[in-house]
Amino acid sequence: MLPTVLPGWSSLQTLRSRLSGRLARFSRSDDSASESSSQTLQNKRAFFETDLRYLFITVSMVATIPNYDVHRFERCAQDLLSALNDIVNVDLVEALTALKTAARSTDGFAEEGANLHDLVPLAERYPDLSRLLSLLEASPAHFSLATDQGSSLFILPAGQAGDAVMTSLAEIKDLVSRVLYDANKQPTSLTPPLPTDDDSCTMLGQAAGHQLTAPHRYASSIVNSLFKDIRQRNCGKPHEIKLKVSDEWQTSAREVPLDMFFSCCLDPMAWHEAKCGPIQAAIDEARVDGICAAIQRARDQRRSIHLFVYKDGLFDISDTMPTTPLSAAHYTIETLQQLLDQKALTRITPGDYRSGLVEEKLSSREKAVLALGLARCFLEFFDADVDLASHSWKPEYVFFLRPIQGCGRDRILYISLKPIGTDSAGTKPTQSVGAIGPGHPALLSFAKLLLEIENGEKIPMEIYPQSRANLPTWGEMCDIVERVERDGGGNYLRAVEGCLYLHRALRELQKKAADLPLSECLRKTIYDQIVCNLEVHVNPQNVKRKRQDSVSDLPILKKLSFSPPTPNSNVRLVKTPTARQHHPTNRDDFEIAIVCALPLEFDAVSALIDEIWDEDYGRTWGDPNIYTNGRIGKFNVVLLLLSSVGKVSAATASTNLRSSYPRLSLVLVTGICGGVPFPGAGEEILLGDVIISRHIVQYDLGRQYPEGFETKDTVEDRFGRAPPNIRRLLTMLQTIHARERAEELTANYLLDIQQIVGRKPRGIRYEYPGASQDVVFDSRYQHKRRHSHSVSLKSPKKKMCGDTDSDSLPCEEAGCDFKNVKPRERIKQKQVLEMQGHTKEAQAPSIFVGTIGSADTVIKSAKERDRIASLHNLIAFEMEGAGLWDETPCIIVKSVCDYADCHKNKRWQNFAAATAASATKALLDFYPQRDASR
Asked: Lowest-confidence range among 629-643, 790-804, 849-863?
């Protein structure tokens, strides 16, 4: 007979529950200064921590163990618990004991054993582990598992003892992974198979005689069952649910319990934690007296609630589950309304990094993920549950739990759900989902909420329960969206439009699919018009890279994921509709060209190519260019390295490029350039920043008079107007949202190229030189030169900026006086970030869109740079764009490697080339793909 009680496995679940909400964010500590900690041991501890987190956080609790594995599960659980008991951090235990003693003497600490009954079985066999868990309540701090010497719960020993612990952990991790993998291969349903005499699985606590039905929508079915129980028992008090917005129930293939808070009957302002759903436990020991009674019992015992939800009712199984201590005391609650008032959703500025406010603000990606999570909730709860969620799309009903000692980025999202009529207003809408039209209150509220999240400000618009009363507001919001779209929209704005014009898309779908039920039509329309656009916005790379990285090249979490994949990982796999990538058959299949003038520029772009096409696609007769074909993201691209720098080489190559690839829609000139450090309007351009051309000026085309040079400026001499596709792309990049998003993507791609090239044993390195290496001198101060005696005799009239090898020497070696360096605010901010260890943020470039000067002249004079820039309103200088434009309108995407003065050197060239390549790839994420049928 199989055992019905598994003490080891149960104790392991108690350990997991006790650690819930108490672990700090994982980061590897640098113990290089410690003589007692070798690099090998540091790596082992990092792997050990990651495996433990996999077991305690990443995967859901295994509730169904195959019969043939029960004894092995129990043995492995006991082995791991015994190993952990032996490596408990004694120093931490002593510190927590002292803290608890001090708290008891000063504040009257809670009586011993008040909430420790679940630790009694654990204490009998694993006393040190039990004592550690009992002491965690003495401190609100968060702890690491093994990688922080001071606050680690466990100290992994060196040598064979540590290897034995790692082996115990690896064995149970493999078991859990395999069971979850096997479970994921089965059809997902809330209906468990009826038990038979020879059933091959032991359902821990399965209720005999009960059978669940698979709901149309999982989360909304659970919530409806909860409110149905509350209505039937009629406690006389209004109830509200705060539901945790989680990827586990939004995107997972398996049905997992929902985390939530219930409002309490006796105190509507108090909230109690609960986990509700298809939790498998001993139903015969459960209670069936309703939610209100379950809340009261859980409050008395200071523990969370576990509710097993069936189609015909629910069971309180809290007494049969491992005790989960209340974690709410370790969190504070915020509303989205409060964050809007605190300007936490406004654009992050360099000043925010310097002042530390960046920790409180949401980045562009975090705002996008927030919008996507809410949109999936909208899809889940709109339809038949419109009465539950009609109030949920207001900032005051979107909540965040935040660890007391955590930063803003640790916030956990919750939404409010309650039946209409339970609030003070008591207004219940008379509309059904079939009456969807312009001004629908839920759709209009959600559109308004998306705009508020994106802009970071509350929109003062009143929305009424009836659509007809909202028509003026609906029209005003449509006008706002239309005006913003003129400057460039994107998928986020399309999602807002999807809310405003959902009625149109719904009608179109109903015409095409007349047999489809209204609810199905509505859900499909909401997904296509709103959710899908936000998924693409969050994950713009809808075609993933096909690089075959080795195990040693992968981040630590990926190294540990080669066991069968688990369905409940915290890593979201969002499936976005993508155009199928066909292998190009001929040159007509190529839409994008990228042109580089220097080999180092070409190398940087090549490192970011997702796939190389090895076929020889040929070229037209007489074309001397050598092309490289490949794919970047969703585009087939052709790369061209010019034979030399300058306009002539670029013009010749451009003519042949257009001849061989006649269907190109966009040409990008990518590489390095000289920047204007102070372009005006208080702006500062730094080395590594990206310059994108709005216009190109050929400033060396003109007439030389005795009194000076005059640039030609007639209509015939100007470059023609850019094609509509280029104008639209550049207009969009001038919006705050698009530029911020492009900067974020560029920073991410820059990390990619640094990691890709960093893994190679030889070749170019793209490390960030550092803000201290970015100096700009007063334009009147000339670069010092090391004079040899022979040079001085031969060139007595030569000034400090002559054409000698010493001109390329760094200013430190040449002896330049750094008292003449111009102070800049952005440099100070980057230096602060570097001192804080935020290298990624420090090296992240800003993007500027403006006029670029193009000529065959290399500018090495600050005075000449400032004169030309002031005359033509330039922000950068380069040498190829003017040559390409006549034959092929293009966009210049270059990164600043020097300031076009006599102090210029090559220190920043490689990094700038990598930054320009990263910005080029980011730009392609914004560019719409050509219809393959055209």
From this structure: 790-804
Q: What is the pLDDT of residues 681-735, one digit of tens each?
A: 778 999 999 999 988 888 877 677 666 667 665 433 455 577 888 888 888 888 8
Please tell me the distance from the alpha carbon of residue 335 to that of residue 414, in angstroms, as a whole number.
9
**Cα dist. 51→12, 48, 215, 886 in Å?**
14, 5, 34, 59
Q: How far is CA 734 from CA 116, 469, 487, 644, 891, in A?
A: 59, 36, 8, 32, 14
Which residue, among 912, 332, 318, has the nearest Cα to 673 in the 3D structure?
A: 912
Report the pLDDT averaged over residues 308-324: 69
The answer to whether the CB of 510 falls within 8 A of the CB of 517 is no
Of 493, 456, 453, nearest to 477 by C-alpha is: 493
In the structure encoding, which two tokens stand for residue 593, read together?
Answer: 């060209």
Nearest in space to 593 (alpha carbons), one of 924, 310, 295, 360: 924
Domain 589-786+810-926: what homologous superfamily? Nucleoside phosphorylase domain (3.40.50.1580)
* Chain centre to alpha carbon of residue 889: 34
Quote the percentage of the chain above a pLDDT of 70.
71
Q: What local confidence, expressed as pLDDT, does residue 749 receive?
A: 92
- CA-CA distance, 838 to 571, in Å (whole number)? 23
Write the CA distances from 659 to 64, 223, 623, 625, 877, integer angstroms. 65, 63, 8, 11, 28
Amino acid identity of residue 388, one-letter, is L
HEC sequence for 735-797:
CHHHHHHHHHHHHHHHHHHHHHHHCCCCCCCCCCCCHHHCCCECCCCCCCCCCCHHHHHHCCC
Give residues with Cβ within 8 angstroms of 521, minimum separation 6: 506, 509, 510, 513
Which range is least confidently modeled, 193-202, 264-273, 368-377, 836-845?
193-202
Residues whose CB is less than 8 angstroms from the CB of residue 203 and which lie 6 or more positions away in sequence, other chains included: 63, 64, 192, 195, 280
C-alpha of 893 from chain center = 25
What are the domain boundaries of the chain?
7-186, 218-326, 336-399+414-538, 589-786+810-926
CB neighbours of residue 735 within 10 Å: 18
Question: Three-state SS for 397?
Answer: helix
Residue-wise pLDDT for 234-246, tens only, equals: 666 777 888 888 7
Average pLDDT, the chain: 75
Task: Map residue 303 onto helix, strand or coil.
Answer: strand
Q: Is the pLDDT of residue 386 over 80?
A: no
Predicted confidence at residue 835, as pLDDT, reads 85
Angle at 519 between CA 515 and CA 521, to 5 degrees: 55
Question: Rounded CA gap, 649 and 660, in Å?
Answer: 17
At residue 366, φ and ψ (nearest 5 deg) are -65, -40
**Which carries the bigger pLDDT value, residue 749 or residue 410?**
749
Closest among 801, 811, 813 to 774, alpha carbons compared: 811
C-beta separation of 592 from 632 below 8 A: yes
**Residues 6+ away with beta carbon under 8 Å from 295:** 262, 264, 265, 272, 305
Residue 689, both tokens:
């920043």
Q: What is the DSSP letter of 668?
A: E
Start-to-end Cα distance in the chain? 69
Higher pLDDT pick, 201 / 644: 644
Cα–Cα distance measured from residue 810 to residue 824, given in angstroms and rounded to the nearest whole number: 20
At residue 74, what are phi and psi to the nearest 5 degrees?
A: -65, -45
Q: Which residues pair with 876 in a beta bridge?
A: 675, 852
Q: 46: which 2 tokens?
A: 């990092």
- Mapped onto helix, strand or coil, the DSSP state of residue 631 is strand
pLDDT score for 58: 65
What six digits make up the tokens of 910?
A: 């490689």
Fill in the amino acid letter for 124. E
What amino acid occupies position 312? D
Residues 6+ apart with CB under 8 A from 558: none
